[in-house]
Amino acid sequence: MNDVVAALGGIGLGDRLLTGPAALAAFSSDAQTAFQQRAIAVVVAETVGEVQAAVRVCHAAGVPFVARGSGTSLSGGSLPVEGGVLIALNRMNRVLRVDADTRTAVVEPGVINLDVTRAATPHGLYYAPDPSSQSICTIGGNIAFNSGGAHCLLHGMTSNHVLGVRVVLPDGELAELGGPSAETPGPDWTGLFCGSEGLFGIVVEATLRLMPVPEAVRTSLAVYDSLEAAGDAVAQIVRAGLLPVALEIMDALAIEAAEASVKPGYPPGATALLIVELEGERDVVDADAARLDALLTASGAREFLATEDLDERALIWKGRKAAFSAVGWLAPDYIVQDGVVPRTRLGEALVEIGRMSEESGIRVANVFHAGDGNLHPLILFDSAVPGELERAERLGGDILRLCIALGGSITGEHGVGIEKREYLPLMYAPDDLAAMRRLRDGVDPAGLANPGKMLAPEAA
After folding, report:
1. Boundaries of each FAD-binding PCMH-type domain copy (predicted)?
2. What pLDDT, on a 0 to 100 scale, did the predictor assign at position 235?
3. Cα distance between residue 273 and residue 13, in whole Å
4. What is the mean pLDDT of residues 114-127?
């Protein structure tokens, strides 16, 4: 390993090659802090050439490497690999250009998600994917995990907004996938790369699709006396043919946490809140709003309010987007899950999660992208209590099994990483998993790019 560190020292990084214990400790986990591992060195890259040089050193020595942005992965996806090198991309954080005519932005991988919209706003444009961590997560990580966000119901996931990428492959070769247009001929290599969790290499530049700022945006907040009723309301809205830009649900625990933390001023006494957002041309939003109000009334909402005021809308969303971190006010520790169920079975899933929570004695705060059935149960526990971590982890596994049984998935946007790789065989047949491994091996025969993530080591 000393030879690898010495070789990395020869690529001109200077003090951006980190090898000291304190520096390595700072990169020893991502947001899934249950997993800890130190790299043998951290390369803080500033250029494409430095990323290539670092990968080539690793490839020549047969040493694994992992790319990392802000470290907001909730599945252990950017955890260092034992005996490996971590390549930090935070300083590759430039918005290289915004083209208003083609509605595109070209950015480096370390650009913060929200900074793309900030750069596009003067042109009347914005970047649609909006994970809850959008104020700190980076575009490179969003691409690796095909992140979604509250507004993915209408606008889709990250893969729907990435037109092309420049990537450093596992042997250090620089490749161009896709291009400035969605009409690139041939196989959709860009789409394949999105969501590959770093197994195919490292994004060093991305061409992103931008959206025009809508003429009108209306956010509604509906109060329900049961979580099941809120879940059923989502199915009724979609069944009626409405397609809001966002459909989000928070339960009583998530509401309590948000009020304790960012104080959004949600209606008191709510068992569940449903957030519905409409956007588009003025006439269309007005017509859809009338239909939505009637649907919310018919769905049993105790009360609801609607606003187009920017500050009021921002406060509603502040409570929702702060929910993950806010539950820290309710418990010393928590696990975030990321399962998916069909919209038609949301109510059923929520009732069953409530039963499982009560049976296990572990509280669960529910906050999720209801429009596409993407559940984010927040499993609250205290690791200082003997056995409670194990019970919380078992409950998390049971929730994932429930999602599969209901015809869903073990992940909607957080990825498989380390945390959920043991559940992948419950979703896919052996032939399916073998096909995934053949594809990975075709790109990375030596298995050096983020090994052990998604595909279990024994299947590598």
Report:
1. 35-213
2. 85
3. 50
4. 98
First to last CA, the chain: 22
**How far apart (Å, rounded) are the C-alpha atoms in residues 246 and 230?**
14
Q: What is the pLDDT of residues 79-88, one digit of tens each?
A: 999 999 999 9
pTM: 0.93
Integer CA distances (angstroms), 135 to 63, 87, 242, 322, in order: 33, 21, 29, 11
How large is the average pLDDT for residues 249-275?
Answer: 93
DSSP labels for 198-228? TTT-EEEEEEEE-EEPPSEEEEEEEEES-HH
Q: 360 is written with which tokens? A: 């296990």
Q: Say yes or no to pLDDT of 459 above 50.
A: no
Q: Which domains, ranges and CATH numbers included, belong to the chain?
A: 2-88 (3.30.43.10), 95-212 (3.30.465.10), 216-322 (3.30.70.2190), 331-439 (3.30.70.2740)
* Burial of 214 (C-beta count, 10 Å sphere; 0-12/13-18/19+): middle
Burial class (CB within 10 angstroms; exposed 0-12, middle 13-18, buried 19+) of 185: exposed
Cα distance between residue 237 and residue 244, in whole Å: 9
Nearby residues of 269 by Cβ (< 8 Å), 6 or more positions away: none
